[in-house]
Amino acid sequence: MSSGIPVEDSCIEAFHELKRKRNVNTVIYRLSDNLETVIPDFKGNLTHDELLQALPTAETRFVVYDLVFATANGARKDKIVLISWCPEAAEIEQKIAHSTSRNTLRNLLDGVQVYVQTTDPSDLGYEELVSRTS
Regarding the domain delimited by 9-131, which CATH topology (the fold level of the hierarchy) does it fall under? Predict the structure, then answer.
């Protein structure tokens, strides 16, 4: 049994849709308003630029993103990335709840290939994400 903030079953279902069906490339999760549960916030298809715009500047989020990129030899690859978005401007209570829920979510999302902790938009640059997949 995991300790930490519980994760709604719909979060896992959305992840499985991305992982198995591949009809969405992005799932964004947030903490509930009372900071007691991880809940889905968005599920759909976003470009990298749209993903960056979708992240709030003063609230935490978790993002599962199907990152598609080309290798040095030109081969197409994709990796499922879990991004922990915890901007400096987020309230301390939210940061604590986010940190408490991070491992629970990571353990439930079987199939995530890369985990990235971020606090600044520069941590989420396309090239930066691709470099972390190796």
Answer: Severin (3.40.20)
